[in-house]
Design brief:
With about 140 residues, this protein is of the alpha+beta class. It has helices at about 5-20, 25-30, 45-60, 125-135; strands at about 30-35, 65-75, 75-85, 100-115, 115-125. It starts with a helix and ends in a 7-residue tail after the last helix.
């Protein structure tokens, strides 16, 4: 697969899975032995872990929407900088709904093999999320 093919898979992952919540697409796009190096504690390994993550965030933020800001690909690797937005209307890991709208930035790196995502690394502004929800005070 080319770098452009891998970028197309990433776009499909964001649109169909993250934005629409179509969890069945996860099995089409991720390898059975997919490894998420930055998975949330307690999530299952493999594609099921991503399904749990998506379910968790879509239930906490029913209007969740991811926007790809930048995408860079070389060889078998794709890097994405994105922004996601949503309104906190459901429980989020013990945080009761606040009704607050949040905007979070994240950078993800994916490695592909055989037309599927096989590894993921990510860095999300979790502190910014908690500050926007009012769980952690903002500085200043």
């Amino acid at each position: 697969m080319s770098a452009e093919d891998n970028k197309a898979l990433v776009r499909r992952l964001y649109e169909e899975v993250f934005n629409r919540g179509n969890l069945s697409t996860v099995d089409e796009l991720l390898a059975a032995d997919y490894i998420d190096h930055t998975a949330l504690p307690g999530t299952s390994p493999g594609p099921e872990g991503l399904k749990q993550f998506i379910s968790l965030f879509r239930s906490a933020f029913p209007d969740l929407h991811f926007t790809i800001e930048d995408m860079i690909a070389e060889g078998d690797t794709v890097v994405v900088r994105q922004t996601y937005r949503g309104t906190h209307k459901g429980d989020l890991m013990g945080i009761s709904p606040t009704g607050k709208q949040v905007t979070i930035t994240s950078i993800d790196i994916g490695r592909f093999a055989g037309g599927k995502l096989v590894e993921h690394w990510g860095a999300t502004d979790s502190l910014g999320l908690l500050q926007q929800l009012g769980v952690v005070p903002s500085m200043g």
